[in-house]
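Tutorial, part two.
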Amino acid sequence: MSNDASPPETDSDTDSDTHGETDGETGAVGGPAHLGEPGAPLDHKAPFFVGFVGASGALIAFWLLTNIAEISSTLMLIIVSLFLAAGLNPAVVFFERRGLRRSYAVVVVTACVLVAVTLFLVAIVPVITEQVRSITDAAPGWFDRLQNNKQVQEIDDEYDVIDKARDYVTGGDFVSTLFGGALGVGLKVLGALFNAFIVLVLTLYFLSSLATTKSALYRLAPASRRDRVGRLGDRIFESVGGYVSGAFIVAMCAGISSLVFLFIVGLGKYAVALAFVVAVLDVIPMIGATIGAVIVTAIAFAEDPKIGIACVIFYVIYQQVENYLIYPRVMSKSVDVPGAVTVIAALVGAALLGVVGALLAIPTAAAVLMLTREVFVRRQDQR
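Running the prediction step on this input gives:
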């Protein structure tokens, strides 16, 4: 009699079937369990691990510093654009509070700035150019008057200073010499125009997306500290914006007052050019206003000693008014920096980045001081 019953399965057959199944995810026989148990994590205190990670970090830091030095000019354009965006942001906020959307407010502020720059180029630049040419033409007569001074004549007889200065100024090509020839002037102009275009584009981008940019930066902070970081960041942006707009207002006051004064004392034919020089130099902290006053006073003395004396008196009085009345009122809500810190910050900024560094030094110092008071000093007080 045939036995239809199949033989019973043994444990070995069952194990064989199980081991022969293919895992659907990995394609390996038996699944991930057969890849072995994970070992112990690396010892982070091992000498080899510490040395390797330390050397890798040093190499990466050196590589970053080298590349940052290579792109320093680009970084400077970005920083200047950020400061300009922060300076124009109060005007955008002004229009926002009156019902305009931010995009429309940015368009309005940008249009106002472009119209102002266009009007300046069309109306003022030709006048400044003509007056600079007049100053250049009058320079030989001023040098002749200097030669009549006994002390100046003694110095000139020994070093021949006046003749060299006259030849340099009246030679017609001192600007080309200054920039390295005609080709150098063209390249400098093209480079300045390109940088101005880049700054304009970046400023518009930062201005339109300032809220988004700040929000993205604040999200890098831990959630438990994000609110405080956001408050501190907003305060810094407000301070920078107030300083930039305030510096512009102070410079305009210096330029307009100089323009009116020069017309009154009889230097009207040079008034626009000299007032523009005073306004531009007044933006530079500490020494800018003094340099502008010295330039105007020197030209005034060369034109007429009485006008020179009047310029000395005027600028001495105006500097006191600006330092103790105009500047504190304009900057009262933007920056709070002690005088010694202002001087040190301006010197360090000028040594590192030139005129741009001097311009950015004071708001940067104000931000550092605020962070020190609100973070470090407060933490020390709690201990």
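Residues 1-7, 9-29 have pLDDT under 50 and may be disordered. In part three we will examine how such features are distributed along the chain.
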